[in-house]
Design goal:
Layout lengths: L1 H26 L19 E3 L6 E3 L7 E7 L8 H12 L4 E7 L10 H12 L18 H8 L11 E4 L5 E5 L8 H12 L4
Parallel strand pairs: 3-4
Antiparallel strand pairs: 1-2, 3-5, 5-6
């Protein structure tokens, strides 16, 4: 009789342990795979110092936006285009447009100091769109970003205020020479068409 009671107790304990184990397994929350992070387009996989404080800025942060890239200068006949660039940025930024300015002295018409460039742009034209420190944009010394931009259309900047339009997919849409003003019909239409295209 004593042995039977011990056996019964052992069976009861074993059953409770088994039930507890099964319950613990059944209540363990399932592992949910994290959503894949969208890859940065190759064309935007570059980092440049911000003009105002020289803090590194990745162009990947503009993935999914329509981007207008412009090489700028402070002492050029086209310098007043800053006003048009700021106007078009202000008009379309809430729809997904960003203008990126890259001051360059490749054509010997830019200030020597980055802070002087920043002050000039803000005080003279009220520039609010993102700008970066002085950059080489043409020839063998051009940074890789501008070399890539020159490959697709086969056009490198031939003067200041050359423009490149990049779509939401991070691919080059078209390039525009210095004579094409920011308010030109062809450029505005291309921007609006690119903004209308949603990324998949």
């Amino acid at each position: 009789m004593h042995k039977f009671k011990l056996f019964k107790t052992w069976v009861t304990v074993f059953g409770l342990l088994s039930t507890t184990s099964i319950w613990a397994q059944s209540t363990t929350p399932p592992v949910v795979p994290s959503a894949p992070v969208a890859a940065c387009p190759v064309l935007l996989n570059h980092t440049f110092p911000r003009l105002q404080d020289e803090k590194p800025q990745s162009l990947c942060q503009y993935s999914g936006k329509v981007i207008l890239v412009v090489n700028t200068a402070s002492y050029c006949g086209f310098t007043p285009q800053y006003k048009g660039l700021e106007a078009i940025y202000s008009q379309y930024k809430d729809k997904g447009l960003v203008v990126l300015g890259f001051p360059s002295n490749d054509f010997a018409q830019e200030k020597t100091n980055n802070q002087d460039i920043a002050d000039f742009c803000e005080n003279t034209f009220g520039v609010k769109f993102p700008m970066f420190t002085k950059t080489s944009v043409t020839g063998d010394s051009a940074v890789p970003f501008f070399k890539q931009l020159a490959q697709d259309p086969g056009q490198r900047p031939k003067w200041n205020f050359y423009k490149y339009l990049i779509g939401r997919d991070g691919k080059l849409v078209d390039s525009y020479n210095s004579m094409t003003s920011p308010e030109s019909k062809s450029l505005v239409q291309a921007i609006e068409k690119s903004l209308a295209r949603k990324t998949s």
